[in-house]
Design brief:
Blueprint (H helix, E strand, L loop, with lengths): L1 H20 L3 H29 L1 H21 L3 H29 L2 H32 L3 H5 L1 H15 L14 H24 L4 H21 L15 H31 L4 H7 L1 H21 L2 H18 L8 H28 L6 H41 L7 H11 L12 H37 L18
Length: about 500
């Protein structure tokens, strides 16, 4: 809950942090990017640590470190310290996530694993829903520091329960050494990839820096694959990917996160900047989505246990695609009821995918590699989400660039210089209307109408692309099946 909550709750606090600490826009971006980079780069290595030293120890260390880093962020008096502790928070979060899945895999027999993963998905849905709402309330009524301090009591409770309840399950043939060259190559490749995706919107996809980081990432991944074939105890045994269901599940997670996170990125701007909602109100309007994920995840676990993952996964991605195509029809005047129906359908579609794809990846990996498999599942989500945000952001920028100037002139508004037009387009890409101070009300209304219509047009195109990706994911889901190694769970592990 802590890791997922901090992925969404901080966005609400960023404006207050910027004001209180005198941070620049770049500093504020690093508050988010530092966390996401540390998390994405470390997930698979952290999973390996759990396989080597035990998921219980790794999980408890992650809890203590995450809570401690959260307290340190709340006490920070400069943005440099805050960003540094956010990076630490991401590193400890990376210890938590794969270890949680490794613990579930080892503790539950095959016939109960899907329900356990369903409850895990329910917690993720609840914390995703709660982030903007809790963050908005805390920032509005307490302080931005309280957004981070809230992790301390949660961490203490989790640590106490974990010490008394969690068992130290370890596979008999767990790894005994570390693949340091593999860790270095994979970490460098992941950092270069995620960094390029984060910066592509600012640099441009054709910029030499973007190309350099993407090319460097590709080289590192090729070298990593070559090294793993010769390493005595590789970080990721490439033989894992001989399992078609595991490979399909990994690709499915990337495509699902692309469609979901990439599309949802624009929804918050749509609700706040087009409809004029507060962060708390926009979080409440997203409750149909996250509420259906909360309700649907345990139900999906039960369905997957009964009929296997393939049918629920295909149906889930089909529903996700339908929701994306439906959301592409939103207009500046769309009402709450219509939005809620599409958000509900999106939540219904995502629930079985979150549960089923996780079971396919973790259940098809050997028990001694359950931490690596959990890290792979989480890393696939991070890469997919970053890729979706970057690609759909480029789609939005292209749509706004192609149509905003024409729409402005068609509305017979005062001409803009090239510099003014470029500045206005930057704001329109997130739904902000470039209304000059003191503009007469009719002119302000006309500018807002042009800006919002242009933004919604771009969002429509982005959701259409997301829907196509979701259709592709439904095809990939046809190649999944129940985990071949899922039975090697509670009965095969020892304390």
């Amino acid at each position: 809950m802590m890791v997922t909550l901090d992925g969404t709750i901080v966005a609400v606090a960023n404006p207050e942090i910027q004001k209180d600490l005198g941070a620049s826009l770049s500093d504020v971006q690093w508050i988010t990017n530092g966390y996401l980079l540390a998390l994405a780069v470390s997930l698979i290595t952290a999973g390996k640590l759990g396989d080597r030293f035990g998921h219980r120890q790794t999980f408890l260390l992650g809890i203590a470190g995450f809570a401690g880093a959260s307290a340190a962020i709340g006490l920070s008096s400069s943005v440099e310290f805050l960003v540094g502790f956010r990076v630490a928070q991401g590193l400890f979060g990376a210890l938590l996530m794969p270890a949680a899945l490794g613990l579930l895999r080892a503790a539950f027999p095959a016939e109960k694993l899907n329900m356990a993963i369903g409850i895990w998905g329910m917690v993720i849905g609840a914390s995703t829903a709660g982030g903007p709402i809790v963050g908005g309330l805390l920032v509005e009524h307490v302080s931005w520091q309280s957004v981070f301090f809230v992790n301390v009591p949660v961490g203490i409770i989790a640590l106490v329960f974990g010490l008394f309840i969690l068992l130290d399950h370890r596979a008999e043939n767990a790894p005994r050494s570390f693949d340091l060259p593999g860790i270095a190559l994979l970490s460098t490749g992941m950092f270069s990839l995620i960094w390029a995706l984060i910066k592509a919107s600012a640099w441009g996809w054709g910029d030499s820096r973007t190309v350099l980081f993407l090319g460097g990432s590709a080289v590192c991944f090729v070298l990593f694959a070559a090294w793993e074939t010769t390493a005595r105890e590789p970080l990721i045994p490439l033989g894992m990917f001989r399992s078609l269901p595991l490979s399909a599940g990994t690709v499915l997670m990337v495509l699902m996160a692309f469609a979901f996170m990439g599309g949802l990125f624009f929804v918050t701007f749509y609700l706040q900047n087009v409809h004029g909602m507060s962060p708390v109100d926009s979080g409440l309007h997203l409750l149909p989505l996250t509420g259906m994920m909360i309700i649907g995840s345990p139900l999906a676990g039960a369905a997957i246990t009964a009929v296997g993952p393939r049918i629920p996964l295909v149906a889930g991605m089909a529903a996700t695609a339908a929701a994306c195509f439906g959301l592409s029809g939103l207009t500046p005047g769309t009402g709450t009821l219509e939005m809620s129906l599409w958000f509900c359908l999106l939540g219904v579609g995502l629930a079985p995918v979150m549960v089923g794809a996780t079971e396919v990846i973790v259940g098809n990996a050997p028990l001694e590699l359950s931490g690596v498999a959990g890290g792979l599942q989480q890393a696939a989500m991070q890469v997919g989400g970053s890729l979706g945000t970057a690609v759909l952001g480029a789609v939005m920028a292209r749509t706004v660039g192609d149509s905003f100037g024409d729409n402005w002139r068609a509305a017979e508004l005062p001409p803009l210089s090239p510099e003014q037009l470029a500045l206005a387009e930057t704001g329109v890409q997130v739904g902000i209307a470039p209304v000059p101070q003191g503009a007469p009300q009719p002119v302000a209304d006309a500018i807002a109408a042009v800006a919002h219509d242009t933004f919604v047009s771009g969002m429509s195109t982005a959701f259409t692309v997301a829907g196509v990706v979701a259709v592709l994911a439904a095809v990939v889901a046809c190649f999944t099946k129940r985990g071949e190694n899922a039975a090697a769970g509670a009965g095969a592990a020892h304390v």
